[in-house]
Design brief:
Order of helices and strands: HEHEEHE
Number of strands: 4
Helix content: 25-40%
CATH class: Alpha Beta
Number of domains: 1
Shape: globular
Length: 80
């Protein structure tokens, strides 16, 4: 029988369009978000035309993610 933690059940996923261009920028952005938010998972898909930033976690606000990404010098918009 598989056991799931409560946090895994409560996690939500938000997807953002960005203008991240390369692995170095993606790694820096992932690190920045990981340092500032309590999230389970963060990644940037550079192969997607929208350079998708995916954030998974329980306690974060999409608005704050957008603010942090903008403050780091990147475009960021929530994909709904």
């Amino acid at each position: 029988m598989e056991h799931l933690s409560i946090t895994a059940i409560n996690n939500r996923i938000e997807i953002f369009k960005t203008d991240v261009e390369n692995e170095r920028q993606a790694a820096a952005l992932v690190r920045l978000i990981g340092d500032q938010f309590s999230v389970a998972r963060v990644n940037v898909d550079l192969h997607d035309e929208d350079k998708v930033l995916r954030v998974e976690g329980e306690f974060f606000e999409a608005k704050r993610i957008i603010e942090v990404v903008w403050s780091a010098g990147f475009y960021c918009r929530l994909i709904e």
